[in-house]
Every structure is written in C-alpha cells, then in structure tokens.
Amino acid sequence: MEHLTRRRVLLGLATTVASLWSRPADLGTGSARHRRDPPPPACIEDLVAANRILVDQGVLDGYGHVSVRHDRAADRYLMARSLAPELVTAADIMEYDLDSVPVDARGRADLSRALHPRRDLSRRVPTSRAVVHNHSPSVIPFGVTGAALRPLYHMSAFLGGGVPVFDIRAGQRSA
C-alpha cells in the first residue's frame, strides 16, 4: 500500500467532492414527502464511490459518512443507511428530506441520521452539494477548543477566509 500523505487525502477528497458537485440541483420548492423524483443511477454510483474513496484515503472511519444533495430536488439528500462506509452499495443509499426523514425507507431502519449535519446545513447553506461527517483526529481539537483552523502553507490558502464550524450541540453554526 502506498504511503498515505495529507496531499493524497486532500486530492482524493477534492476529486470526490468535485464529482459530487458537478451536477446542478433543482432549487425548486415542494415537499419531498409528496413528490417522487428518483435520483439517476449515476448519482447513486458516485455516492457509493465517494464512500469507498474516503475510506480508502483514511478520511472516513466506520462511523463517518458522506451525503449529497439530490441532484433533481434541493429539498432532499442522499446518504447510505447506518452502515460502515466501506460496505456501502447502491442498495444502501437512501433518500431523505431536510428533516432527515426517509422518503422511502423500504423497510430499512436508520436511526442515526437525525444527527447528520446535512439537516441544518442544507437550510443554512442552500448551495451546499455534499457533506462529509468524519472523526478526524487532526481536526477534532479545533471543534472542542474554540481555536480557529488557519492556513499554514500555500495548499491551504482556501482556509484564509475562515472555516465555518457547525456546533451540533447548539444546532447552529458557531462564530
């Protein structure tokens, strides 16, 4: 196995997120509970691939997950049911409304999604296309200490404007 570097992780993550963001969302209105517009198979395949890539690159552990906004309805998102990301298949992808209620559970129980950050982020940042929830040991200290994550070299210049922090305890973005 090749040596895992920060550069490889960032490149893998950037490639994954870029592929998930490449499809425009229908920013129309309407309740996900009342209409059915299934995502195309390619969107589901991309989400399965994102799970596998992020596990392979060490970004996700057994409890992390990635979601994408439904590419045809901005009031819904797609995410795998409660399952380790390395085991996700197309059959495990579920569709949720912005209250994290499954649109069609098809008998699959999924208890943890009410905690997924997509719920509030989709409302607060309507242009968000993908959310990765992980437990990165190198980032966790910034979430519990109040210290700001700052760029330290040119490859992290995108952090120069600041990094938004979502405080799940407060249910909102912190300063």
Report what the structure shows.
- By secondary structure, the protein is an alpha+beta fold.
- The protein folds into two domains: 6-136, Class II aldolase/adducin N-terminal domain (L-fuculose-1-phosphate Aldolase); 137-175, no CATH class.
- It contains four helices and six strands, in the order H-H-E-E-E-H-E-H-E-E.
- The strands form two sheets. A four-stranded antiparallel beta sheet has the order 3-2-1-4, with helices on both faces. Strands 5-6 form a two-stranded antiparallel ribbon.
- The longest helix has 16 residues, at 6-21.
- The chain is globular and about 45 Å long.
What is the topology?
Blueprint: H1 6-21, H2 41-56, E1 65-69, E2 76-80, E3 93-97, H3 118-124, E4 130-133, H4 140-145, E5 165-167, E6 172-174
Antiparallel strand pairs: 1-2, 1-4, 2-3, 5-6
Which features does this protein show?
alpha+beta, single chain, L-fuculose-1-phosphate Aldolase, 175 residues, 26% helix, two-stranded antiparallel sheet, 4 helices, four-stranded antiparallel sheet, globular, 2 domains, 6 strands, 14% strand
What is shown here, in short?
This protein is α+β, with helices and mostly antiparallel strands. Helix content is about 25%, strand content about 15%.
